[in-house]
């Protein structure tokens, strides 16, 4: 299950739980509904407990769409492990700092 806390005024998104094939549609729908469309987005990944290829693909699509205007912060261990496995740290280019969770 994925819980999403979205603050449209600050363009911040906090993800909590699983970011897997079963949940990415929920997140994609939230992003697609934003009017006007997002121009910047900060995503807090500290509480992501599980992530799979579909979750990474959605983050990659956001990076492609927003470029440097997408900022990923507080990468969880699960996210770091998958980024490392797929060698995606340079692709995203964000500073990776372990969260305190």
Topology of this structure?
Layout: E1 2-7, E2 12-19, H1 24-32, E3 41-51, H2 53-66, E4 70-73, H3 77-85, H4 89-92
Parallel strand pairs: 2-3, 3-4
Antiparallel strand pairs: 1-2
Summary tags:
101 residues; alpha/beta; 4 helices; 4 strands; STAS_dom_sf; STAS domain-containing protein; MlaB-like_STAS; STAS_dom
Helix/strand structural class = alpha/beta
Tell me the span between the first and last alpha carbons.
18 Å
Low-confidence stretches: none
Radius of gyration of CA atoms, rounded to a whole number: 12 Å
Task: Give the neighbour order of strands across the main sheet.
Answer: 1-2-3-4
Q: Count the beta strands.
A: 4
- Biggest β-sheet, characterized? 4 strands, mixed
Mean pLDDT: 91
- Helix count from the secondary structure assignment: 4
Helix-strand topology string: EEHEHEHH
Note the overall shape: globular
Q: How much of the sequence is in beta strands?
A: 25-35%
Share in helix: 25-40%
Pfam families: STAS_2
Domain STAS: 1-101
Protein name: STAS domain-containing protein
InterPro entries: MlaB-like_STAS, MlaB_ABC_Transporter, STAS_dom, STAS_dom_sf
